[in-house]
C-alpha cells in the first residue's frame, strides 16, 4: 500500500492535516485469524463496509459505461438465484399437454371448474381451540366467501366429514394448534378428496400487521396463484382455487394471493387501487401465513388407512437446495 499506510493505519502529508483513516486488507486477509473477539468483530464490520463500497463503485462504473454506450450497450446480466438455477423437474406441466388436459377434465375438481358446484367451506379446529386460533379462524372466514366456522368440542374428524357431505359442503379446512399457536392446516376436498396436510408458520393476525387497511368487505375476491408449475403443484393450486367462487366482484378490489417460492406457499390478502394508468397502490388486509406441504392423501382424511399420493421425506428429498417439488 502506498503512502506508508497499512491495515488500520493512516498516512499524513508534510505538515498537512492527517489523512482520513483508510483500511486496506491484504488479499489473503482472514478475519477468523484474529484472536481477540472484540477486535475480530470490529474488523469484520470494517471488512463488510469495504466490500459494500467496492460493490457500489463497480455498479456505478457499469451504469456510466452503459450510459456512454447508449443503444450499443450489452444486455444486463441476469443474476444467479436459487430459483433460476432450479433443477429441472420431469413433472413440470406444459399448458398444451393433452394428458394434463384430460386429467384436469376428469379429476375431483372438475365439477367446480365446470361450474357444476358452488364452493361451501367448513372451517374447524383441533379439539378445544384457544384464543389465537379462534381469532385466526374468524378472520380466515372473512377472506373465503361462503365459509362457516365450527369449533370442535371432542367430536372426531371422521364423524364431521359425513355430516359435511350431507350438508353439501365442498371443502373442509382444519386448523391445528400447538401451545395456543396455529401450526398446521388440513385441507380436504369433499366428497372424494384429495386431502392435503400443511405445516403452518408465520401467522399474523390483522392487528399485528403494520399499515393494515380497513376490514375486508363481503365482495368475492380475485385469486392469484403463482409458480405452481409441476403436476403436484398444479393439484395444490387447483385445491386452493376451488375454495373461492367463480366470477370475482372487481368492484371490491380485493385479491387473495397464494405465492409458491421454494416450496413455501405464502398467503397474502390485499386491497388495491389504481392511482394512474401505470401505478397501483396496495394495502394488506390480513391475515397472513405460510404453508409447507407435508403430504397429499387420496380420498378424505384418514390417518390410519389412507393412501398417500405424495409424502415429504426430508432426508431423501431435500438433498439439493435447488430442487423443488411444487
Brief summary of the model shown:
By secondary structure, the protein is of the alpha+beta class. The chain has helices at 37-69, 98-106, 110-113, 131-143, 157-166, 231-241, 314-317; strands at 121-125, 147-150, 171-178, 181-189, 195-204, 222-226, 254-261, 264-274, 280-284, 288-297, 308-311.
Please tell me about this protein's structure.
The chain has 326 residues and is α+β, with helices and mostly antiparallel strands. The chain folds into two domains: 31-65; 93-318, 3-Layer(aba) Sandwich (Rossmann fold), CATH 3.40.50.10480. The chain has seven helices and eleven strands. It has helices at 37-69, 98-106, 110-113, 131-143, 157-166, 231-241, 314-317, and strands at residues 121-125, 147-150, 171-178, 181-189, 195-204, 222-226, 254-261, 264-274, 280-284, 288-297, 308-311. Strands 1, 2, 3, 4, 5, 6, 7, 8, 9, 10 and 11 form an eleven-stranded mixed beta sheet that branches. It is globular. The two termini are 53 Å apart. The model is unreliable at 1-13 (pLDDT under 50).
| Topology as a string of helices (H) and strands (E) | HHHEHEHEEEEHEEEEEH
> Into which percentage range does the β-strand content fall?
15-25%
How many beta-strand segments? 11
SS field, number of helical segments = 7
CATH architecture name of the largest domain:
3-Layer(aba) Sandwich
Mean pLDDT: 86
CATH superfamily of the largest domain: Brix domain
Question: Span from first to last CA?
Answer: 53 Å
Number of discrete domains: 2
Query: Helix proportion of residues, in percent?
Result: 25-40%
Report the C-alpha radius of gyration, rounded: 27 Å
Residue runs with pLDDT of under 50 for 5 or more positions:
1-13
CATH topology name of the largest domain, in short, is: Rossmann fold
Largest β-sheet summary: 11 strands, mixed
Overall form: globular
Structural class comes to alpha+beta
CATH class category of the largest domain? Alpha Beta
Amino acid at each position: 500500500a502506498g503512502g506508508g499506510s497499512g491495515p488500520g493505519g493512516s498516512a499524513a502529508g508534510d505538515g498537512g492535516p492527517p489523512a482520513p483513516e483508510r483500511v486496506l486488507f491484504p488479499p489473503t486477509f482472514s478475519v477468523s485469524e484474529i484472536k481477540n473477539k472484540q477486535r475480530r468483530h470490529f474488523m469484520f464490520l470494517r471488512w463488510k463496509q469495504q466490500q459494500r463500497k467496492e460493490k457500489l463503485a463497480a455498479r456505478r462504473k457499469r451504469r456510466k459505461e452503459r450510459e456512454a454506450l447508449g443503444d450499443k450497450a450489452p444486455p444486463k446480466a441476469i443474476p444467479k438465484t436459487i430459483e433460476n438455477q432450479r433443477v429441472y423437474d420431469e413433472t413440470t406441466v406444459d399448458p398444451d399437454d393433452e394428458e394434463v388436459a384430460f386429467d384436469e377434465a376428469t379429476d375431483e375438481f372438475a365439477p367446480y371448474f365446470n361450474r357444476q358446484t358452488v364452493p361451501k367451506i367448513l372451517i374447524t379446529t383441533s379439539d378445544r381451540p384457544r384464543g389465537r386460533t379462534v381469532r385466526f379462524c374468524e378472520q380466515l372466514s372473512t377472506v373465503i366467501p361462503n365459509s362457516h366456522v365450527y369449533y370442535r368440542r371432542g367430536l372426531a374428524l371422521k364423524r364431521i366429514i359425513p355430516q359435511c357431505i350431507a350438508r353439501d359442503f365442498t371443502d373442509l379446512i382444519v386448523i391445528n394448534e400447538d401451545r395456543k399457536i396455529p401450526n398446521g392446516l388440513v385441507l380436504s376436498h369433499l366428497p372424494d378428496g384429495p386431502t392435503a396436510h400443511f405445516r403452518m408458520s408465520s401467522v399474523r393476525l390483522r392487528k399485528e400487521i403494520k399499515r393494515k387497511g380497513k376490514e375486508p368487505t363481503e365482495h368475492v375476491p380475485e385469486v392469484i396463484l403463482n409458480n405452481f408449475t409441476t403436476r403436484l403443484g398444479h393439484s395444490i393450486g387447483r385445491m386452493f382455487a376451488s375454495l373461492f367462487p367463480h366470477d370475482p366482484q372487481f368492484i371490491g378490489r380485493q385479491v387473495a394471493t397464494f405465492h409458491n417460492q421454494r416450496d413455501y406457499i405464502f398467503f397474502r390478502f390485499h386491497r388495491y387501487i389504481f392511482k394512474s394508468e401505470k401505478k397501483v397502490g396496495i394495502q394488506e388486509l390480513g391475515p397472513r401465513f405460510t404453508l409447507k406441504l407435508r403430504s397429499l392423501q387420496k380420498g378424505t382424511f384418514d390417518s390410519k388407512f389412507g393412501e398417500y399420493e405424495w409424502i415429504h421425506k426430508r432426508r431423501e428429498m431435500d438433498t439439493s437446495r435447488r430442487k423443488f417439488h411444487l
